[in-house]
Specification:
Layout (H helix, E strand, L loop, with lengths): L4 H5 L5 E3 L4 H9 L5 E2 L16 H23 L6 E11 L2 E3 L5 H11 L3 E15 L5 E16 L4 H9 L20 E5 L2 H5 L3 H14 L3 H6 L1 E6 L2 E6 L11 H25 L2 H7 L3 E2 H8 L3 H13 L3 E6 L2 E7 L1 H6 L9 H15 L2 H7 L4 H5 L6 H6 L3 H23 L9 E5 L5 H9 L4 E6 L1 H4 L14 E5 L12 E5 L7 H14 L5 E6 L10 H7 L10 H9 L3 E7 L6 E7 L1
Parallel strand pairs: 1-2, 1-3, 6-9, 13-14, 13-16, 14-15, 16-17
Antiparallel strand pairs: 3-4, 3-5, 5-6, 6-7, 8-9, 10-12, 11-12, 17-19, 18-19
Helix pairs in contact: 4-5, 9-12, 9-14, 11-12, 14-18, 18-19
Bound molecules: 5-Methyluridine triphosphate.
Length: 589
Amino acid sequence: MVLNPVISKLSGKLVVLASASPRRLEILRNAGLRFEVVPSWFKETLDKGLFKAPHEYAVETAKQKALEVARRMPFKHLKTPDIVIGADTIVTVDGMILEKPVDKHDAYRMLSSLSGKEHSVFTGVAIVLCHEKENEEVDYQLIDFYEETKVKFADLSEDMLWEYINSGEPMDKAGGYGIQALGGMLVEYVHGDFLNVVGFPLNHFCKQLDLIYNHCASSSDQESASVHVSHNGTHTTSITTQPPPNLELKNQDLQQITALMDGFKASKALFTASELCVFDLLHSRPRLDAAQVAQEIKASVKGTECLLEACVSLGLLKSKERTLQKPVYENTDLAMRFLRSDAPFSLHGYIQHCNNTIWPLFSHLESAVREGTNQHEKAFGKISKDVFQDAYYNSQEVKLRFMNAMHSIAKVTGKAVATAFDLSRYKTACDLGGCTGAMAYEFTKAHPGLSVTVFDLPAVVEMSEHFHPLQKDNRVSFVAGDFFKDELPKADLYILARILHDWPDEKVHILLRKIADACTPGCGLLISEIFLDEDRGAPSRGLLQALSMSEGKQRSATEYSLLLKSHGFIAAHVRHTDNFLDAMLCIKV
Ligand SMILES: Cc1cn([C@@H]2O[C@H](COP(=O)(O)OP(=O)(O)OP(=O)(O)O)[C@@H](O)[C@H]2O)c(=O)[nH]c1=O
């Protein structure tokens, strides 16, 4: 009898376990699965810094292990498997990822960091389904998942630690322990799947098989939920299996859809209130009623009333009822911090840019999607080959608005980017396309030994003094030039904040080549962008921005690091800041 009917669905198929772990072999054998073992040759050397969360690292490693075997077998073993299973187990504690110790001292370092604490064990699993095509090519479908188990260790004395290390058990095990053997004595509790700690989350695996074989009606159904990725010329399909569609009407789902349908109305209400200076007015004169606000902003009472009420519902304003009188309005804390035009972190400038530039572009989104071109001509009546030169910097008004937008974003995000890394080794920096210098000022504020040159187009630099802070810092200076054409100022750190996404790879290569030529070994290059997740599934902020971009493209941290690598930069660290922009520090080798 087979407890889990899906295991029997695999009989007759060539199932391969791409793992040398004796524990994984045992867990799967004990479950009644019949398979061959072909250990993966994939070296576990992915850059951990490139992953937002530790489980993503484990899943990616599992994928690479399984794919390596799936691709090797037709050539080296002269047979194509039906299914390849790969897994990777890691232990995480205090933000560190622990894999197998390299020697006894490494085991000591790992075990002492686990002593007396709760930690997580993640196993990432990849299932590769191989479909041979008529032309002998193979289609790979990839399903991946992970499981987390929490484990708490007792306090470990030095004697205990060394006795355990000298037993030899830690050496081939993630985190330096084996919960299934002597290491079990170190454990106070386990929350979650025990076998996941041992190396394979059997229960979750069976549920995934069930989804694949019992719920996905046909492989074409699976394909419809798929994301296509191309690896070294072979065709890889990465799919996320989904439970059968739920046709029940759930209010929560309805709310999600409604929020999406109404999203543009909310944006436009915010833009309009901001454009009409409602937040500034209610800051200088709080507690006005709708008629008073209408009079000040020179609008109709009826329209103003609707706008104010909508802003209350969006959490931007508060209304106070007065007995027998009309309600009065005041800013919420959110409006005070971000919507007043004179607030330190004001987004007023960016909101105006959204309203006047991004909004018209998005109203032509359908044509943009159909044609795959920028819609400046339809939206603004003029063709723009270079969006900066032709559109943003052509008229004084548009230029100022664009600079205001960049200024407000840089002020909100600057500190998070400037403090993302230890930059104490650098004395001079050059912020390429640094616009008003707001980001540069954040860098000098955060790093007392650093001077920053802002390099931007002459049209920008001539206006930049309008934006200087009251207390000028003479460590920030400005140089006018075009970073694609002119010589770059010398510096030991170059900053590219919100620049590369605007350009296609060819242009990015031109710019990176110029920076690489200006750099000596050891020089730094700090990139700040929205980094897409490796599967390009999020964040939607980045993906939505791409819809109105002209020639540029949004990239993941790995994509950026590959571009940089081709110019002799290695990605040293990546920080996902939770602010507008993420950051990556690269070093010239
Ligand atoms: C926490 C813990 C881990 N392990 C073993 O640790 C290895 C992890 O390393 P991996 O890189 O995921 O696998 P591998 O052993 O190198 O094999 P491979 O799949 O070929 O990479 C696996 O063995 C697991 O069982 C235990 O046996 N017991 C435990 O309590």
